[in-house]
Write a structure and sequence with these properties.
The chain is an alpha/beta fold and about 260 residues long. It has one domain: Formyl transferase, N-terminal domain (Rossmann fold). Helix 1 packs parallel to helix 8, helix 3 crosses helix 5 and helix 7 crosses helix 8. It starts with a strand and ends with a strand. The protein binds 5-O-phosphono-beta-D-ribofuranosylamine.
Length: about 260
């Protein structure tokens, strides 16, 4: 058996993926233990799942932080180590023609909330941070403070679609509304974009003529509960390596991509 990794989790909702990971840690399918569960949502029912297993929990209420900053912009005080130019240079969430005020407010308000998250996480050192239905986009401020080494990303996410198709918050519904015949889920490392980081694993299901959004969400979630533990176990075994791969393009050029090799 491998040394157990320490896993932190962030959730926003019901936490069925969290439950799958807790169960996999307890049954030995994952060589790991969950050391905290944090949320942005004080009403996240998944917190109960953590408490039932004696796992430490905390809440950083993003909505109320963002509301109060909107109401009293003069009170905005970014964290001491906040460098907005660095974040502008790194982020790929907004296009160049996005409203600069909107981008600025996003970066500052996220960094304020994220600094609180980091503070809550600090007592629990971890090897891997897993996002399990965490519905807040993480800014480079947070990502850089967790990923200290470029080639060792350690924030994982599960997404309800076969990326790079259908990034965003509603992947199963988007897949269904497009008329796809196959849907699926993806586990990937987080980077500075929206659901754009290196892919670790994917599972797919058929979409039948009588399927509905509800039935494909059910099919998808059942696959998520298998896929996420498998990917986390690969991480625990040290089998996920980030490599820079060069691919030929149609016009004879080359593109570079950071991908995950499973070794
Ligand atoms: C899942 O569908 C996951 O892919 C997405 O959010 C949902 C979370 O569900 N990111 P749960 O809270 O784990 O039940």
């Amino acid at each position: 058996m491998h040394k157990k990794i320490r896993i932190g989790a962030l959730i926003s909702g019901g936490g069925t993926n969290l439950q799958a990971i807790i169960d996999s840690c307890e049954s030995g399918k994952i060589d790991g233990e969950i050391v905290f569960v944090g949320t942005d949502n004080p009403d996240a029912s998944g917190l109960e799942r953590a408490k039932n297993h004696g796992i430490n929990t905390f809440t950083v209420d993003y909505s109320s932080i963002i509301q109060s900053l909107k109401k009293e912009p003069e009170k905005i005080a970014p964290p001491k180590d906040f460098d907005i130019d660095d974040l502008y240079a790194k982020q790929s969430l907004f296009s160049d023609d996005a409203d600069p005020e909107k981008v600025k407010f996003f970066m500052v308000s996220r960094a304020i909330a994220e600094a609180k998250l980091l503070e809550e996480m600090a007592p629990y050192p971890f090897d891997l941070l897993m996002l399990a239905g965490f519905m807040r986009t993480l800014s480079p401020y947070f990502i850089d403070r967790v990923n200290k080494e470029a080639d060792h990303p350690r924030i994982m996410n599960i997404h309800p679609a076969l990326l790079p198709s259908f990034p965003g918050t509603d992947g199963y519904s988007d897949t269904f509304r497009y008329g796809c015949k196959v849907g699926g889920c993806t586990v990937h490392f987080i980077d500075y974009g929206e659901d754009s980081g290196p892919i670790i694993g994917q599972k797919a299901f058929q979409i039948q003529p009588d399927d509905t959004i509800a039935t494909i969400k059910k099919k998808g979630l059942e696959l998520e509960w298998e896929l996420y533990p498998e990917c986390i176990q690969l991480f625990a075994q040290g089998r996920l390596k980030i490599v820079n791969r060069s691919y030929p393009t149609k016009d004879g050029k080359k593109i570079q991509r950071r991908i995950v090799d499973i070794v």
